[in-house]
Amino acid sequence: MPRVDRGPCSFDGVEAVPHDEIAIRPASPLSGSAISFISFWFLILFHDPQISLTAINDSCDRGWDRFAVSVLFDQHGGSAMKGFVDDIEKLTEGNGDFRRVLYTGKNLQLVLMAIEPGGAIGAEVHDDGDQFFRVESGSAEILIDDVVSEVKAGMAMIVPAGARHNVRNSGAEPLKLYTVYAPPAHHHATVHVTKADADASHEHFDGVTSE
After folding, report:
1. At a CB cut-off of 8 Å and minimum separation 6, what does 56 contact?
2. Are the C-beta atoms of 159 and 126 separated by less than 8 Å?
3. The pTM is what?
4. CATH number, domain 88-200
5. Is 30 exposed, middle or buried (0-12, 13-18, 19+ CB in 10 A)?
6. Residue 4's beta-bridge partner residues?
7. How far is 76 from 211, CA to CA, in rounded Å?
C-alpha cells in the first residue's frame, strides 16, 4: 500500500523529480466536495500498488479546499528493484579499467579499480562520506592522514570522512580492488579506462542511481 506523509498543517513538497519518475499534478486544486476528495484518493491509492505519494498543502488555513497532490509513477512498471548480486571477486580480478562504477544507490556506490605498478589513486579527501576498500589481488600502501599501512589481497580498509588518503600500488603486478563510497562520488556507470582519463574528468555524482 502506498504511504502518504501527512502532518497537522504542512506537507513536504517535491521540487525536483528523479529521472526515472514522472510527476502528475491535478490541473486545478481539488474542490471542497467530500465526494470529489474521496473519489480522487480512492483512484490514486488503488490504481497501482507501486505508486508513491507526496502530499503538498497549498494553504494551511484553507484546509482540504486547496490541497494538491503530486503522484510519482515508477517507470519500471511496478517491478521490484534488483539491487546488485554478482561475484565481486571475479569481477574485480577481471577488471582492467582504472575506475568502473558497477552500481549506484541513493546512499552508496560500488566501484572497481585497477592500478598499474607504481601508480596511485591520487591523494583526496571526501568531506561528506566514508570509503571502504578491499584488495583482491596485488599489494599496496594506503595512506590515511599521516598513517601508512601495507595491504595485500584479502585485506580491507576504511577511510573515515574528512581523512586525506591515497592508495599506491607498491607491487610488480596490477593492483585490483573494489571500493564502496558512502554516499556515491561518481556518475552512475562511469568508466575511466586510465588514470589520465580520470584526471581529465571532472564528473561528480549527480543524483542519478542505477534504479
Report:
1. 11, 12, 13, 14, 67, 68, 69, 70
2. yes
3. 0.65
4. 2.60.120.10
5. middle
6. 53
7. 9
Q: Decide: helix, strand or coil at residue 147.
A: strand
Please give the C-alpha separations between residue 17 and each of 12, 42, 57, 66, 190, in angstroms, as whole numbers: 13, 24, 18, 22, 22
Mean pLDDT, all residues of the chain:
76
Of 31 and 148, the structure prediction assigns the larger pLDDT to 148
Contact partners, residue 79, CB within 8 Å, separation at least 6: none
Q: Which three cell numbers stand for residue 44?
A: 490514486
Strand partners, 53: 4, 71
The CA radius of gyration of the chain, in Å to the nearest whole number, is: 24
- The ranges of the chain annotated as CATH 2.60.120.10 are 88-200
Task: Note the residue count of the chain.
Answer: 211
Query: In the block, which residue shows the cell 579499467?
Result: 97
Averaged pLDDT, 66-87: 62
pLDDT tens digits for 116-175?
999 999 999 999 999 999 999 999 999 999 999 999 999 999 999 999 999 999 999 999
Amino acid 15 reads: E
Which residue, among 168, 165, 111, has the nearest Cα to 141 in the 3D structure?
A: 168
Residue 62 bridge partners (DSSP): none
Grid cell of 61 as nine digits: 488555513
The model's pLDDT over 8-23, given as tens digits with 9 standing for 90+, comes to 333 344 333 333 333 3
> In DSSP terms, which residues pair with 175 in a beta bridge?
115
pLDDT of res. 78: 53
